[in-house]
Write a structure and sequence with these properties.
By secondary structure, this protein is mostly helical. The protein has two domains: about 150 residues, no CATH class; about 90 residues, no CATH class. It is built from ten helices and two strands; from the N terminus they run ααααααββαααα. It has a two-stranded antiparallel ribbon with strand order 1-2. Strand 1 and strand 2 form a beta hairpin. Helix 5 packs across helix 9 and helix 6 crosses helix 8. It is globular, with a radius of gyration of 19 Å. The relative contact order is 0.14.
C-alpha cells in the first residue's frame, strides 16, 4: 500500500496521532527492510523461508478477507502450495512451481464454492506469484542478488517518492474511486524516482560496463508503473470486500498484503521478463543484461 493512501492529519487535536502513526509506519518499514535485506544477503533456504512466511501470510489475509466455505482447508491447501512451489522455484524449476500454484488455486476455488471461487483461487495465485518470482530471481545462475536489489530499489523508491511528490505537488487524483489519496503528480514522481533508484543500485551491484543503461531505464519505468498498479489493485480488492486494511500484523501498515502489494506485481513482472529473455535458470541475468 502506498504511503499516499494514508493522509497526514491536519492541524488540531488529531495531528499528534497522525505524526505518531507516521513514525510507527517509518519504524516498521525500516525493520522490514532490514529483514528483507538480511534474507537477501543470506540467500539459500533463509531467503526462501522469509518469502515463504510472507506468502503464507498473504494467503491467510486474502482468504479471511474473502470468506466462504471450507476456510481452514483452503488455508492448508494454500500454505502447502506456497511451500512446495517456493522449493521448486529455488531449485530453478520456476515453471513447475507456477504450474503447482495454478493447481492449488483451482483447488481452493473449488473448495470455496461457486460464489467465492474466483476470489479464493486468485488469492493463492497472488501469493504464489510473489514467492515463485523472488525465489526464481534470487537463485538465478547470474545476478540473482542484484536483481532483487534492483526490485527493492524500484519499488521502495517509487513508493516513498510517490508519497512526497503527491504531498508537495498535489493536483488531480489518479483514481479517486479506488484510492482517494493517490495523485497523478505522485504517480509520475514515484515512477521516475523508482526507475532512477533501480538504475543506480543495479549499476553499483554489477561489473562496470556490464549493463546497458537504456534497457535498464525502460524496465525501471515499466516496473515502477506496474508497482503502482499493484497498489491500486490491492486498494480495489479491499474496497470490494469493505476492508480498510488486509490485516493488523504490521504496526502502522496493516497486513502483509498492504505492505507488499506493489512489490508482488513488480516481482512477477521482473520474473516474467527475465524468464522470457534468458529462461528460468537465468531469469535475473535476462532481466538486467541486454
Amino acid at each position: 500500500m502506498s504511503a499516499g493512501d494514508q493522509p497526514l492529519a491536519g492541524p488540531g487535536p488529531g495531528r499528534s496521532g497522525g505524526l505518531m502513526d507516521l513514525g510507527l509506519r517509518l519504524v516498521s518499514a525500516v525493520v522490514l527492510a532490514a529483514l528483507a535485506l538480511g534474507a537477501l544477503w543470506a540467500g539459500g533456504w533463509l531467503f526462501a523461508a522469509f518469502w515463504l512466511v510472507a506468502g503464507v501470510a498473504i494467503v491467510w489475509e486474502w482468504q479471511h478477507l474473502v470468506g466462504g466455505q471450507a476456510l481452514n482447508l483452503r488455508l492448508v491447501v494454500g500454505a502447502a502450495t506456497i511451500a512446495v512451489s517456493a522449493g521448486l522455484a529455488s531449485l530453478g524449476q520456476g515453471e513447475v512451481g507456477l504450474a503447482l500454484v495454478m493447481a492449488g488455486s483451482l483447488l481452493c476455488a473449488w473448495l470455496a464454492g461457486r460464489d467465492k471461487a474466483l476470489w479464493s483461487g486468485a488469492g493463492v495465485f497472488y501469493a504464489g506469484a510473489l514467492v515463485v518470482s523472488v525465489c526464481l530471481l534470487r537463485n538465478s545462475l547470474f545476478h540473482g542478488a542484484a536483481a532483487i536489489l534492483w526490485l527493492f530499489a524500484v519499488v521502495w523508491g517509487t513508493d516513498i517518492m510517490a508519497y512526497f511528490g503527491g504531498r508537495l505537488i498535489g493536483g488531480p487524483k489518479l483514481w479517486p474511486r479506488v484510492s482517494p489519496g493517490k495523485t497523478w503528480s505522485g504517480f509520475c514522481v514515484g515512477v521516475v524516482s523508482g526507475a532512477a533508484a533501480g538504475c543506480a543500485v543495479a549499476l553499483y551491484a554489477t561489473t562496470p560496463g556490464e549493463l546497458s543503461l537504456l534497457p535498464l531505464v525502460v524496465l525501471g519505468l515499466l516496473a515502477a508503473m506496474v508497482s503502482q498498479g499493484g497498489d491500486l489493485f490491492e486498494s480495489a480488492i479491499k474496497r470490494r470486500f469493505g476492508a480498510k486494511d488486509s490485516g493488523r500484523v504490521i504496526p502502522g501498515h496493516g497486513g502483509v498484503m498492504d505492505r507488499l502489494d506493489g512489490f508482488i506485481f513488480a516481482a512477477a513482472f521482473a520474473a516474467l521478463i527475465g524468464t522470457a529473455h534468458k529462461g528460468a535458470v537465468a531469469a535475473a541475468h535476462g532481466l538486467l543484461v541486454w
